[in-house]
From TrEMBL:
Transmembrane feature ranges: 39-57
Gene3D superfamilies according to UniProt: 4'-phosphopantetheinyl transferase domain
Spans annotated as Disordered: 216-239
Keyword Transmembrane: yes
GO MF term (any one): holo-[acyl-carrier-protein] synthase activity
Name recorded for this polypeptide: Phosphopantetheinyl transferase
Coiled coil spans: none
Keyword terms, alphabetized: Membrane, Transmembrane, Transmembrane helix
């Protein structure tokens, strides 16, 4: 079963909310203008991909789990993860397993935090060998965030995850079986995580006037032509 990753480079001042329940639109009114637009853009993108893939005309009821992770209330509906970077909204969705998505703007994050603070010695060594260490550090940060979002972890989450970029392997205490695909496209780096594995990742571009356009399909046994593409697969649990 495919995992679907869709992005929307938002240019509209106000999104078309006709697929959203009125309760969602009303609940966003107490947010600041920036937060409200970002919240609604994410929900609109989620609603449109749900309609496109499953024919559900209105966004199903979304709840917030104790971890802070949004989820459909019905266990029969697919798992999803939302992410934002500047004016770009993204959604990752799959009817099998759990998913986690992160988007970051290249070089923007480094002005706010030092991504290397949460990296292991192995990761830092790999970063130091890359032609653009800041860019590489941010991509690993993005990969980590996608895994932590999938696992529903926050402050203590980084301690449960280790990456080996050179071998493309990862070990997660919280999610022992997982796979991550990541790339850098233009000014944005993205990372898609799925448990137990990503068999096929279908990537989409969304435009309100044109709907969804497939941009590429990535499989677990196929390497991308992109020089920034990275793929991580779980190591067996440590004994």
């Amino acid at each position: 079963m495919a995992c679907h990753f869709a992005r929307w480079a938002v240019t509209e001042a106000e999104p078309d909310t006709h697929r959203l329940p009125k309760s969602i639109v009303m609940s966003a009114r107490h947010l600041s203008d920036k937060q409200r637009r970002r919240f609604l853009n994410g929900r609109v993108l989620l609603a449109e991909i749900i309609f496109y893939l499953y024919g559900i005309a209105e966004l199903p009821h979304v709840i917030t789990l104790p971890s802070g992770r949004p989820s459909f209330e019905s266990p029969d509906l697919p798992d999803f993860s939302l992410a934002y970077a500047g004016s770009t909204a993204g959604v990752l969705i799959s009817s099998e397993g759990k998913v986690g998505l992160d988007l970051e703007i290249i070089h923007a994050r480094s002005a706010l935090v030092n991504p290397q603070q949460q990296l292991s010695a192995v990761e830092k060594t790999w970063i130091a060998m890359q032609s653009d260490p800041v860019e590489s550090s941010l991509q690993l940060w993005c990969i980590r965030q996608s895994m932590l979002k999938m696992s529903g972890l926050n402050e203590q989450g980084p301690l449960t995850l280790s990456l080996n970029p050179a071998s493309g392997r990862l070990r997660s205490i919280a999610t022992p079986e997982a796979q991550v695909m990541s790339d850098i496209e233009g000014s944005i780096t993205w990372a898609c995580a799925q448990s137990p594995s990503i068999i096929r990742l279908q990537c989409w571009r969304y435009e309100p006037e044109n709907g969804f356009t497939r941009t590429q399909t990535l499989s677990s046994d196929q390497q991308s032509d992109s020089p920034h593409f990275m793929k991580f697969t779980s190591l067996p649990p440590a004994k």
